[in-house]
Amino acid sequence: MPDELLAIHGLNAGTEEKPILHDIDLTLGTGETHVLMGPNGAGKSTLGRVIMGDPAYQVSSGTIAFDGRDITQESSDKRSLAGVFLSYQAPVEIPGVPLNSFLRTIVQKRPELKMTGREFRRRLKEVASQLDFDSSYLSRELNVGFSGGEKKKVEMMQLLLLKPKLAILDETDSGLDVDALSVVSRGMEAYRAECDGTLLIITHNTRILERLDVDRCHVMVKGHLVAEGDSSLVGEIDREGFGRFETAEAELAGEEA
Ligand SMILES: Nc1ncnc2c1ncn2[C@@H]1O[C@H](COP(=O)(O)OP(=O)(O)OP(=O)(O)O)[C@@H](O)[C@H]1O
Ligand SMILES: [Mg+2]
Fold first, then answer.
1. Digit-coded pLDDT (tens) for 63-119
2. CA-to-CA distance for 106 and 103, rounded, in angstroms?
3. Rounded to an integer, what distance in angstroms lies between the CA atom of residue 12 and that of residue 24?
4. Which protein residues touch ligand 1 with a CB less than 6 Å away?
5. Model pTM score
6. Atom of ligand 1 nearest to the CA of 220
7. What is the CATH number of domain 4-256?
8. How far is the CA of 14 from the centre of ligand 2 (A)?
9. 139 C-alpha vs ligand 1 centroid, how far in Å?
């Protein structure tokens, strides 16, 4: 049994106006690959952002422990330095910041990744080529004018450079063509193999999972985690959709009311 890396207990969270997540219990072990699935608007991205400490959301009760430490009240920069990584469903464009300077800065912020300028450039080239990313783009402004697929590859470059303990990938596969999908999937595989990192993959596209050994699959409906199972659950959802989980959520909500 691997060590617990992330342990969420009784988490209720949302915006000031709207409760979104209800009584979430979720445990991820070191080196495991978990998948989070659920219909649109279920709260999957919100859970990723709450784990990352996005100030747009408040935790009304419950705890989030990471690597044996309670991080429920910690700022997102501290969580990031501790080894939590979130790749955004819709990465932001930052004019005026060249991509290579941004990547150099985030690596320099982590003392455990100490690299000389030359080592960094070598590693960056290696990662760009691993992801079939045109290295002439490295001097462009961060994500500005990048296609959807290119933005997702930038997220994967950050993952492979930073080697976080926990990577939450929020629909990193969406908008990718078949070739890019296989590149990103190889990136996830490389992260697992090189870093023994823990993955929480939020996706609607089960094809991205084909190269990975999925340990657990979780299903979220209307802010509740209503089911958990092994990788066979991914196949079941692919074939049959979320119908039976929506029924389970309706029963759960009925009991709570
Ligand atoms: N900052 C916010 N302000 C108001 N409502 C929000 C905010 N963030 C999320 N919500 C609402 O919370 C619900 C869950 O949204 P979330 O983005 O987490 O869903 P999701 O499961 O990621 O869906 P999708 O599969 O479409 O990406 C939605 O109804 C959404 O409109
Ligand atoms: Mg989402």
1. 999 999 999 999 999 999 999 999 987 899 999 999 999 999 999 999 889 899 999
2. 5
3. 7
4. 15, 18, 20, 38, 40-46, 56, 89
5. 0.94
6. 21
7. 3.40.50.300
8. 14
9. 33
